[in-house]
Write a structure and sequence with these properties.
The chain has ten helices and ten strands. With about 260 residues, the protein is of the alpha/beta class. The protein binds adenosine-5'-triphosphate and magnesium ion (MG).
């Protein structure tokens, strides 16, 4: 009963590369339909966390539940079934360069469904319209601007009508106006489809525009969770420094920590 209130529950998640622990007993839960932002500095473990949530990495220990179903206790086939309800936007959009934008968006439908080609065509067009790329289906990814490429990645993540969507740095590397357009799209998709949205970012502007709640990661641990206003009132100096973009006193430690993680590999 408790679990029905959460779209995602993560409990004591530990993820390591070799013997280097990158996520250390991370716990949080995401409510249905909220925009939950994972915020943290470079190397704090944000991408690793997303990759683990979508099943590209296996945790060493801990529990991940999606809509109350414990993924970590399931077979790979059972996990696949749940993961069909999850869309993922990769940081670099990860479009296939040899396929048109429309074929990139259609790919998950061709691979995971037995829908007629005419149905796939309509669904693809709807998804492209949805992200503002209505006229761009026949273009190749190389013919798109940075913002259009992100939109195409979002259309592909939406192809299978997911209930949950993950975005890895959706507005990184874009100019402020284009980035704000992506933020607006993330908000619109959430309100149109009640889409539970988990957004990894380090851009404070985005956080202010989109976040219902924020989970702050620091060195692989959760430093704080709450609304932005709650975190801004935190006593934790690292959280306050990060939110106000002050250089952290512990910068040298930071570098040392990152080095200790990468040294083995
Ligand atoms: N394949 C890998 N093998 C070994 N260590 C890795 C690997 N990928 C990431 N790491 C280490 O794990 C830590 C977390 O990396 P991760 O990419 O999750 O961070 P991040 O928060 O997404 O950083 P960024 O903001 O730079 O994208 C880093 O210190 C990194 O060096
Ligand atoms: Mg990353």
């Amino acid at each position: 009963m408790k679990e029905d209130r959460h779209a995602i529950e993560v409990e004591d998640l530990v993820v390591a590369y070799g013997d280097k622990v990158v996520l250390d007993r991370v716990s949080f839960s995401v409510r249905p339909g909220e925009i939950f932002v994972i915020l943290g500095g470079s190397g704090s473990g944000k991408t690793t966390l997303l990759r683990t949530l979508v099943g590209l990495m296996r945790p060493r220990s801990g529990r991940i539940a999606i809509h109350g179903q414990n993924l970590t206790a399931m077979s790979d086939e059972q996990q696949m079934e749940i993961r069909r309800k999850i869309g993922m936007c990769f940081q670099g959009a990860a479009l296939l360069g040899s396929l048109s934008v429309a074929d990139n968006v259609a790919l998950p439908l061709r691979e995971h469904t037995r829908l007629e080609e005419s149905t796939i065509d309509i669904m693809t067009r709807i998804k492209l319209e949805l992200v503002g790329l209505g006229g761009a289906g026949e273009l190749l990814p190389s013919e798109l601007s940075g913002g259009m490429r992100k939109r195409a990645g979002i259309a592909r993540a939406m192809a299978m009508d997911p209930e949950i969507i993950f975005y890895d740095e959706p507005s990184a590397g874009l100019d402020p106006i284009v980035a704000a357009g992506i933020d607006e799209l993330i908000r619109n998709l959430r309100s149109t489809f009640s889409l539970t949205s988990v957004v990894v970012t380090h851009e404070m502007e985005s956080v202010r525009l989109i976040a219902d709640r924020v989970c702050m990661l620091h060195r692989g641990r959760v430093a704080g969770i709450g609304t932005l206003a709650e975190l801004e009132g935190s006593d934790d100096p690292y959280i306050r420094d990060f939110l106000t973009r002050r250089p952290a006193e512990s910068d040298a430690d930071e570098t040392e920590w990152a080095r200790s993680l990468t040294a083995v590999d």
